Amino acid sequence: MSKIDHIRNFAIIAHIDHGKSTIADRIIHKCGGLSDREMKAQVLDSMDIERERGITIKAQTVKLNYKSKNGKNYILNIIDTPGHVDFSYEVSRSLYACEGSILIVDSTQGVEAQTLANVYQALEINHEIVPVLNKIDLPASDIDRTKKQIEDVIGIDTSNAVPCSGKTGDGIDEILEKIIENLPAPLGNKDEKLKCLLVDSWYDSYLGVVILVRVIDGKITKNIKVKMMSTNQEYVVEKVGVFTPKPKNIDELNSGEIGFIITGIKSLSETKVGDTICDSNKTLEKALPGFKPSKPVVFCGLFPVDSSEYQKLKDGLAKLKLNDSSFSYEAESSSALGLGFRCGFLGLLHLEIITERLEREFDINLITTTPGVVYKIHLNKGEIIDLHNPSSLPDPTLIKFIEEPWIKATIITPDKYLGSIIKLCQNKRGIQTNLNYSGNRAVLNYEIPLNEVVFDFNDRLKSMTSGYASFDYEIVGHREGELVKLGILVNSEPVDALAMMIHKEFAQSIGRIVCEKLKDLIPRHNFMIPIQAAIGGKIIARETIKGFKKDVLTKIHGGGARDRKRKLLEKQKKGKVRSKQFGKVEIPQEAFIGVLKINNSE
């Protein structure tokens, strides 16, 4: 039996909170990766924010040695993946580096939306799957019902499913044995030319860029010269290592193994995820197919509350970008909010994580503008441009039509909430494509514009179903829509930070809500302030903030009082017109934040 036959590479996939990181902890402990003293809960969730929220954001790898019941020694390479839809790009690239997956399903909750999404990704690339039913120590656990659900909804055989508990450690031995029996060894030949897949890369302040690789053929050793096939750049390998889960330097990585290399690269832009690495003296004719780059789908502006913190924000974004290549940013300025950045994210949770890290790690107070999506603007001349920021929409007379991104949503819910969920999806312009049942749970498929989902859809879904419904989506492309730019004018001046793209049908009601909200939030001035919502040149809603009025008539009495009063009132009126012309309306930060919190539900 060759060495490669003793290797098993597998990913751990599941819905959020079904116990991936806890089971990874148990496997690491069982295989002696860490001693009792070094063990802590969620060993692989290294970021503070991951540990606090109880979620995995970055996929992590571990190499373990395991002695099977048949007396043979095996090498297990585990990749613990995130469960949230915003980080599905992490899951997809982790799966490419493996031959099999452990699918963890919570035996108290059953199959949920992200379970489906991750399993389909694994099946697409022909993974062998070992189903694991977690949380059997809980009284609500129902193993038979969960097995039936897995067979009905996903369609995979559960006769070899392993019941276990990540909390107590029951069933971990069986999981390890099933991995050895059911998952295939990697294919590859160490005598062939070197061929590696670049799985991930991140920045370490001491070592520079650390590159996670899966060796397909050949072997990678210290001091050899390697070449990145997408950029044709050559580098010398300074260090080769594996995570056990602590980083450990070794002499070589052979075919079928997963580990890291350090080549002295200082910039992440030189390491493209999915690239092929080969020996610069023995180049390959054809690169590996790699995987699609992650594309930001949600954009919003980030501005410092205090303009003196702009440089601090710029440095913070540059540092976060080092460890998260899926996040993008570019400078922008707003007449209302000053200098800031237009940032692209993979979803709302991704946005939330980045803003929280900026505030926490770099101590910056931020204002976040309304999240929006990327629209495709088709101009009369035949050009197509991407619109990230509503304030830069071209003149409507130049536009032929506008396309918006649509998603295919999968919602799994107890059937008693079905009516209210269908109503929510219809209010969001959704089109139902499928509905089927597994026991008392409905699996609902809808096509919905991403713009309608990105703001508050998930929160409303969770609140109307007491947290029992789960939601997952994938982007299906752009479609033409009746979209307009809703502009807000304060004292006849457009406020670019409050401009939003919206469907024609909702424009008037949202315009009215924004005007009412601003009327309450902008303080009174000495002159009257009109607040208007407009589409192009047409005003569709208006509110007025009354000006302060000084009483100029108190001291006037006696003869000719009527004429003198009229003169004074005329003079006051002229003064108000002049101050309205030259007076600047100060819009407080609270007004922006208040408007940004307006839900589409209103």
Task: Describe this entry's structure for a reader.
- With 602 residues, the protein is of the alpha+beta class.
- It has five domains: 180 residues, 3-Layer(aba) Sandwich (Rossmann fold); 85 residues, Beta Barrel (Elongation Factor Tu (Ef-tu), domain 3); 72 residues, Elongation Factor G (Translational Gtpase), domain 3 (Alpha-Beta Plaits, 2-Layer Sandwich); 106 residues, 2-Layer Sandwich (Alpha-Beta Plaits), CATH 3.30.70; 112 residues, Alpha-Beta Plaits.
- The chain contains 14 helices and 32 strands.
- An eight-stranded antiparallel beta sheet has the order 11-10-16-7-8-15-12-13.
- Helix 12 runs antiparallel to helix 14.
- The relative contact order is 0.08.
- About 3% of the residues have low confidence.
What attributes characterize this protein structure?
26% helix, alpha+beta, Alpha-Beta Plaits, 8-stranded antiparallel beta sheet, 5 domains
Number of strands: 32
CATH fold-level topology of the largest domain: Rossmann fold
Task: Kindly state the percentage of residues in helix.
Answer: 25-40%
Rg over CA atoms, rounded to whole Å, is 29 Å
For the biggest sheet, the summary is:
8 strands, antiparallel
- Can you give the mean pLDDT? 78
N-to-C span: 66 Å
At the fourth CATH level, what is the homologous superfamily of the largest domain?
A: P-loop containing nucleotide triphosphate hydrolases
Question: How are the elements arranged and paired?
Answer:
Elements: E1 7-14, H1 20-30, H2 48-53, E2 60-67, E3 73-80, H3 88-96, E4 100-106, H4 113-124, E5 128-134, H5 143-154, E6 162-163, H6 172-182, E7 195-204, E8 208-217, E9 219-221, E10 225-228, E11 233-236, E12 239-243, E13 247-250, E14 252-254, E15 258-262, E16 276-279, E17 298-304, H7 310-323, E18 328-334, E19 338-345, H8 348-361, E20 366-368, E21 372-373, E22 375-379, E23 384-387, E24 399-414, H9 418-427, E25 431-438, E26 441-449, H10 450-453, H11 457-464, E27 470-481, E28 483-490, E29 493-494, E30 500-503, H12 504-521, E31 529-535, E32 538-545, H13 561-582, H14 589-596
Parallel strand pairs: 1-3, 1-4, 4-5, 5-6
Antiparallel strand pairs: 2-3, 7-8, 7-16, 8-15, 9-14, 10-11, 10-16, 12-13, 12-15, 17-19, 17-20, 17-21, 18-19, 22-23, 22-24, 24-26, 24-27, 25-26, 28-29, 28-30, 28-31, 31-32
Helix pairs in contact: 7-8, 12-14
